[in-house]
Amino acid sequence: MSSHDYRSTVRPDFDSVIADIADYVLDSDVTQSSEAMQTARYCWMDTIGCGLYALQYPACTKLLGPIVPGATMSGGARVPGTAHELDPVRAAWNIGAMVRWLDYNDTWLAAEWGHPSDNLGALMALADYQARTDRPERTMKDVLEAMIRAHEVQGVLALENSFNRVGLDHVLLVRVASTAVTAQMLGCNRDQIRNAVSHAWLDGSSLRTYRHAPNTGSRKSWAGGDASARGLFLALTAQRGEMGYPSALSAPGWGFQDVSFGEKPVTLARPLDTYVMENILFKISFPAEFHAQTAVECALALHPQVKDRLDDIEQIVLETQESGDRIINKTGPLDNPADRDHCLQYMVAIPLIFGRLTAEDYENEVASDPRISALRDRMKCSENTDFTREYLESDKRAIGNAVQVFFKDGSSTDRVAIDYPVGHRRRRDEGIPLLVEKFERYLQGAIPDANAAQILSLCEDQSAFESCSVNDMMTLLACD
User: What are the tens digits of pLDDT across the range 127-148?
Assistant: First the structure.
């Protein structure tokens, strides 16, 4: 319990976590890290590309647009790849749902995992709205700075606070980060930002129910967008003068820590700076839950050896980290794409059989192939404690997996183990060209060719990208 008197009406100072977040978004100069600024540009490209790719899926597009017919806003915030112009909160929901839909945008793995680019829904929607109303000077440099701050708030909160351990979903950190950064973008003062962030914590529990068997479902594809939009709503509310709640975290009995976090304190494991953006993990090769990325890479390497011997397989041994074992080790039927892209065995079976893993491979047409279930039934999955240890070491943050296939005649493949996925900071030189190819692939066809060519040209140069106005960029991304 908090040290405050349970019955006292004396209003305390703001919780230090809330105050530190407000100070950071107001006072930090994130442009001093050229690595963070450059990585943020690649992160923007990757995130927008993921959103445009999702527009190929009716399950996503049916949820986009105004919340009710006619609730559009001429001159409002635009949704890339569409003709939608909406109020910024609804536009944030749309953009956030798009970029998260296929589980293909960036990842942060620590005590709590998550996807910091989920915040781009609120950041881009607000920047576009401002560029078309009272702040036409908004540039893409402003967006990059906002992204770095949002990544840092979400990612540092995730380092040592394991919300999943108490059944809470990481999108609550999207809500906190989007609230803080959009409040700063709105020009809120220090007290207003603190007030806004306190409301983000007061929203409290975001249950993980929809991410886990037996309830895994498509809400996990729009929950990040929902949290980002909520963050913008709270920032706008605080800008109007709505009061805050200083001990939203620590209030005895009623605060977030006592009610939802097992009476443990929420902490910031390190000073807020540019660490998270510099170390962000990109999903470059596969639209797969990140704990499985190296497992998919291992399976792909084994495909030539097993593709013609699938019926001869006796057992497939999978080794993963504790987090992977806990959240994506699944047996039994998989009812929908959201269930399949969070199943380690499914994500290994596809590349073993087909030599690939794409978003289309989670759809019913591919999933109905009986060979997938047959291979899943022969898989044995367990934790490798070395993978777990190196996953948690701050100077490594490895995401190791290993795969080995054993045949009925007693023979076997080599054990293939990979510690770092191609999207890891340690493989940046290898990964960035592939990330650019991924962006180009999903940009082409989603918007007019001439617009795509201009965007690609802008994205090739850091200075040109930063100086591009938000209005110009969103005009290029809009599509009838």
Answer: 999 999 999 999 999 999 999 9
